[in-house]
Design a protein that fits this description.
- By secondary structure, the chain is an alpha+beta fold.
- The protein folds into 3 domains: 144 residues, 3-Layer(aba) Sandwich (SMI1/KNR4-like); 153 residues, no CATH class; 82 residues.
- The chain is built from 10 helices and 17 strands.
- The strands form 3 sheets. Strands 1, 2, 3, 4, 5, 6, 7 and 8 form an 8-stranded antiparallel sheet that branches. Strands 9-10-11-12-15-16 form a 6-stranded antiparallel sheet, with no helix packed on it.
């Protein structure tokens, strides 16, 4: 596979970066991690000791910085207070002590690490990507220069055009003009029909940001997944998830991995315009495994969903999920701060209850470790919520959460 050239001049977002790192700070970092940094990363840090890279929500950590997630460091040290991330790494790599964390996404859901397992003097570590949502750490098999060369590569034109939607039968069309965090946004959408799939075209302008999306979703849709939730604009908007019915998998690996599906359920092509006028074109299969249609009118989405599901109603679990999302979305920050630990405690209680039905001796090592982590987290959260007022969570909200957990438990019991 040919690799894009790493261009340091297009690496940093000059509006959100730190001052240059000194050679002394970089040398001290290499002594701490006991490995040399890739030459390209050293050069990047000599320009800016951490910050965001161009047109991406990826933050490169700095050399010698202090505080949570602020500095490049060994995996075990950076994540010592995050047992969930340590568990993901333990299940995915041979020895997490040979991993060095150097970057993260803005939402702290994805982390980028240098893998020194195959490192030899004169060689280069590869990049491992750890994702909290998929519970997986994946070896990209790319070096630092190769990984970011590909990530920052661009094309002179977008891979798709919104006008392609005119080639299909249009089922639904809407233009949303709103603001997001005070910045004007315009979203044009056309949901089209083909013989075996739905094709959603989106053209979005958000300040200088431009984005084109072609999302093809195989039919039929799932009445358990097509929920409607509040949107993320300053004005009231709503989002309908367009999720296909996906076959159960018998893979011995994690069943959430898109590559384990032999069928292409969702095919996504996205083109994002960069500051220099070029386009970043990406393509993915089953990741994500759904599309999202937005509207300023919830009733229109409900009517459309009924038509797409051919008159079927959504499941009770989907209804409970919609209620839950709407109620949480309406909460202020103080309410969320009170609610989060108590709801997590309730979920841990449910998980612990399910695991108690199985003899620990019969569990595989990773499940026994998970049970131990659950007990530890439950104890910690129990102490945290002792001083909270009893009315911190609305009883109706607790009931909705309980319904969702019971639906999940029912699925686990009914699965083969």
């Amino acid at each position: 596979m040919s690799m894009a050239t790493f261009d340091l001049t297009k690496f940093w977002d000059e509006f959100d970066v730190a001052k240059p790192a000194t050679d002394k700070a970089i040398d001290q970092l290499e002594k701490q991690i006991k490995y040399p940094l890739p030459p390209a990363l050293r050069k990047a840090l000599r320009l800016h000791n951490g910050g965001y890279i161009q047109d991406e929500d990826i933050c490169i950590l700095g050399a010698g910085k202090r505080g949570e997630f602020q500095g490049i460091g060994l995996f075990a040290k950076v994540f010592k207070d995050y047992p969930d991330l340590i568990e993901i790494a333990d299940n995915s790599v041979e020895d997490h002590r040979k991993l060095v964390v150097f970057a993260k996404t803005d939402d702290e859901e994805t982390f980028f690490m240098l893998d020194y397992h195959k490192f030899v003097d004169g060689g280069a570590p590869t990049i491992i990507v750890l994702n909290r949502e998929s519970l997986l750490a994946t070896d990209s098999e790319y070096t630092f220069s190769e990984f970011f060369g590909e990530l920052l590569a661009s094309d002179p034109a977008p891979a798709i055009e919104y006008e392609e939607s005119q080639e299909f039968e249009v089922l639904y069309e809407e233009v949303i003009e709103a603001t997001r965090e005070g910045v004007a946004v315009r979203i044009e959408q056309r949901l089209c029909d083909s013989a075996v799939s739905l094709v959603l075209f989106t053209r979005e302008s958000h300040g200088p940001f431009q984005r084109l999306v072609r999302c093809e979703i195989i039919k039929p849709l799932s009445n358990d997944m097509c929920v409607i939730s509040p949107g993320n604009h300053d004005q009231p908007t709503f989002e309908l998830v367009l999720a296909p019915v996906m076959d159960e998998m018998d893979s011995e690996e994690d069943d959430r991995l898109a590559e384990n599906y032999e069928t292409t359920y969702v095919h996504l092509i996205e083109s994002r315009k960069k500051r220099d006028g070029t386009w970043k074109n990406t393509e993915s299969v089953n990741n994500p495994n759904y599309g999202v249609l937005e509207s300023a009118d919830r009733d229109r989405l409900v009517q459309l969903r009924t038509e797409l599901l051919e008159g079927q109603d959504i499941t009770d679990r989907a209804k409970a999920q919609e209620q839950w999302i709407s109620r949480v979305h309406a909460m202020d920050d103080d309410q969320l701060e009170l609610m989060a630990p108590q709801m997590m405690l309730q979920m841990l209680d449910r998980a612990e209850h399910l695991l108690e039905k199985v003899d620990p001796a019969e569990l595989p090592p990773e499940m026994r470790n998970a049970l131990s982590e659950i007990e530890s987290m439950r104890s910690m959260l129990g102490e945290e919520v002792e001083g909270f007022p009893n009315e911190a969570i609305d009883p109706e909200l607790q009931d909705i959460m309980r319904q969702m957990l019971e639906f999940q438990e029912g699925d686990e019991h009914s699965s083969p």
